[in-house]
Amino acid sequence: xxxEDKQRNYELAEKLLSEQNFAAAVIAGVIxxxxxxxxxxxxxxxxxxxxxxxxxxxxxxVGIPMQYLGRGIxxxxxxxxxACTIAGCLLGNVFSVVLNPAQLFSxxxxxxxxxxxxxxxxxxxxxxxxxxxxxFWFIAVFAAVFLTxxxxxxxDKLAIGMYKLKA
Length: 167
Hints:
Blueprint: H1 3-18, H2 22-47, H3 52-70, H4 75-105, H5 109-115, H6 118-127, H7 131-148, H8 154-166
């Protein structure tokens, strides 16, 4: 490879790496996690069944905004997306546990949350998790990681690889 090609690859890699914004990706991921978990809990509480596609939807809902705002290439974006997705699935279960008594007694979810003891909330949340849920959580994490990472062309990947070898 000629020196000018190497220089062009280094400049491209520096440009791609400088476009990353981890803070924006994390903020977008946390907001998407909260919104997706609330939506998930409404689905589960309404139909009284834990639908796997809703859990997978959390991964999609987290991954797309993280990619759009973060433009991530590095592994830390995938780790953040995984953490947000797992937190979203757990929060969705917590919210659904809170929504059930809220619907049953016709009270607000905030009042229901205040009336449930932490140990009872934890027990009900964890007892509602089945093996099938964990499978769909895995699918959700896979979707989040896949969608969070910025798609790169072969030449972009080559430029970044050469840049990392130089550094």
